[in-house]
Amino acid sequence: MAHHxxxxxxxxxxxxxxxxxxxxxxGADDLDAAVMQRLAAWTNLSETTFVLRPxxxxxxxxxxxxxxxxxxxxxxxxxxxxxxxxxxxxxVSPDATRLVQECGAGLLPLRAERDESGRRIFxxxxxxxxxxxxxxxxxxxxxxxxxxxxxxxxxxxxxWLVARLGDEAPVRGLRPDxxxxxxxxxxAGAIGVTVFAVCDGPGAGVVVRSxxxxxxxxxxxxxxxxxxxxxxYLATAGLLGRVGDTYAASQGREVGRxxxxxxxVGESGRAIEIGGQAVTVIDGRVDL
Length: 288
Fold this sequence. Notes:
Layout: E1 3-11, E2 20-25, H1 33-43, E3 48-52, E4 61-66, E5 71-72, H2 76-89, E6 98-103, E7 106-115, E8 118-124, E9 129-132, H3 136-143, E10 152-155, E11 159-164, H4 168-172, H5 178-187, E12 192-198, E13 206-212, E14 217-220, H6 224-236, E15 246-251, E16 259-266, E17 271-276, E18 278-287
């Protein structure tokens, strides 16, 4: 049995017990995939990550990412939270402003910036691949609301079926049918369904919710990849002008984990960054 440093980070927040938690295991090169999967099921968080030595030139570290049920090539909040843990643990210089993460989706550039509110970490996501999907009645039944437009299936390393509702209140009031969401997501080749609306009032420009019951996550509190697909949707649908190419998204309030995702969109949607703050909540060890 070996000791491994175990860090739990709340992401897309500067306050403990808000945002979205990710468990990060450092120095995990001696662990096999079966052990990683068992630990991810045990933590029962939307994702658990494992930091390993890089195998690709130019990478600062390698990351493996697991939901309670499977390994995924990329996810947003685990990437931000793991970079925060790597910086705090001194695996790279704590003052580093540029990092490169090796993961199943390839080599992803990250940047860190500081202002009076603290440090924000951003990752440039894999370029989005978008295809249209017929809305059908099944999605409307599962959501209890008819989407404003036909949904899009968007791949950013994770695949989401993305639907837009007309305004903020229906998104916040959703009580979707989990079994129906799982079936619709699987039929689309997606991990789940992300729903959003553009807000016309003050505050966050976009409100988002993400549901992935087939991955063991009934509702992801604050989802980086889900927000990345929303940005790609806005760019594809010509709606980016309503929020601008730099905006903030609100997610997690409905499950008591109120978080803020900062989004930057460039090159007509071909270059998308998602980012935010992170805070360490647990720093200890796990024996495996």
